[in-house]
Here is the input.
Amino acid sequence: MTGPTELETIAATFGIATDTAFGAVTPPIVLSSTFTFSGFEHPRAYDYSRSGNPTREMLAAAVARLEGGAGGVVASSGMAAIDLVLSTLGPGDLVVAPHDCYGGTYRLLARRRDKGQFDAIFIDQNDGDAVSAALHRKPSLVFVETPSNPLMRIVDIQALSAQAHAHGARVAVDNTFLSPALQRPMTLGADFVVHSTTKYINGHSDVVGGVVVAATIRDVEILRDWANTTGVTGAPFDSFLTLRGLRTLFPRIRQQDNSAAVIARFLEGRAEVKAVHYPGLPSHPGHETAKRQQSGFGGMLSFELRDGAVAASQFVEAVKVFTLAESLGGVESLVAHPATMTHLSMGPEARQAAGITDGLLRLSVGLEATADLIAGLEAGLSATTDYE
Ligand code: PLP
Here is the structure.
């Protein structure tokens, strides 16, 4: 008998009713750090939880199935997942990354580059000339983040993957902002998909975790080996919680997507707002590509206030319902000021080059009633008009 094919069913039911010990409907958590050998030189399926653990493997298999990959490795954070992909590179390898990626990704790539572990360049991946010039340098890896954090820029995964492959490069896509519920980069040519599962996949802001999915079993084996070697594998308890969160991913993100669309239109009509970055708006430069490669626009957006940093601080002091905090993708709505929070480590020059201004605010839309979210934003915006 074949299993379910609809992704929503896979997310809701992966591993359900598979327990052979007690017939538990919910897969039991296995916290043991070590496992018995059945005899001398006879390990069982698992021997030690750094190298393999049933609860962690179940989460990895669930995400890999949703992404359409051959398998996955669960790591202790999104950064650890990205670093795991980078473990496969060495001196002489070049990484081509987006100039406006998540600040932590930028920092990781820049620091490893500065240590001579590989070379890395940051480019605008929508600039055809910059992409061609970068690919002519024969990179080993093209790292993509779409939509990008925090400017929600869209990169055409299929087109860039084809170009990268033609030059012998592999492609890794950070799918944190949409999750496999709304975007499946492997169906568009990506070799690796990475997630901060801290965000939508867990969805409840109570676990820090990450996962890498690879398209081929060979790459899965290489990643597993590196994960065991460096010890970046995630904790079983975190995997248990993340699998629990994953079961409701689809209905959560659908609701967040609906509210974000209403919020984007609301913000677009406000005099205090200079620009709204939301791929669901026809005015967004990546709208057509997003429509083609995504099955929804997601629950993330950012916007720029006319009066810059002063207005941003007034807004965050007065806004209701949205809490001032880093992270995203949880059931609760959050507002972040990238220049002083998530993207502080990039430094002012790199931020300026990426277009991350001091008046930019990022919203992660939660599951509160849409009307309350709008009222909360209204309170924040009204406070900024006092400035004029
Ligand atoms: N990738 C993206 C797009 C992110 O937004 C983040 C964190 O905000 C990460 C990766 C890093 O994930 P973590 O915080 O789980 O290490």
About this structure: The first helix runs from residue 7 to 13. The two ends are 67 Å apart (CA to CA). The domain at 7-246 is CATH 3.40.640.10 (Aspartate Aminotransferase; domain 2). Residues 56 and 239 are 5 Å apart (CA to CA).
